[in-house]
Design brief:
Blueprint lengths: L3 E3 L5 E7 L3 E6 L4 E6 L2 E5 L1 H13 L2 H6 L7 E5 L6 E5 H30 L3
Antiparallel strand pairs: 1-2, 2-3, 3-4, 4-5, 6-7
């Protein structure tokens, strides 16, 4: 399902993937993606979106859950060359990871569909 959002600047956003916790929208006019998560709407280019994915995947959730130490269950996700920082607890990290996984699956699915459509002889 594709939903469209209109912003004040009259640009059109396409919902790439969403859950109850957040969503990622694509804006073709600005050639960027907007991540709506944890009460924050952040604008990312593709390179920074990949860096966000890498930073979230780098968090060892299983180790943090099994660790009986007194370390806080909060992770600071800072992305170099990007203006956005997230301070998330483990449940939020899991939710953001789910959103990013779904988004990149949709990117791959879109590539598969495009390749299939343009390879078929007409």
């Amino acid at each position: 399902m594709v939903t469209q959002l209109q912003t004040q600047e009259l640009s059109t956003w396409t919902n790439v993937f969403s859950t109850k916790q957040g969503a990622i929208y694509q804006c073709d006019e600005e050639r960027c993606w907007y991540v709506d998560f944890a009460g924050k709407l952040a604008k990312f280019d593709y390179r920074c979106l990949l860096k966000l994915k890498k930073a979230v995947y780098h968090v060892d959730i299983e180790d943090r859950l099994l660790n009986s130490g007194k370390s806080p269950d909060v992770e600071i996700i800072f992305i170099c060359a990007c203006d956005h920082t997230y301070v998330l607890n483990l449940l939020q990290i899991i939710a953001l990871k789910e959103i990013l996984e779904g988004t990149f699956v949709m990117f791959q699915l879109n590539n598969i569909i495009q390749d299939t459509l343009y390879r078929l002889p007409l």
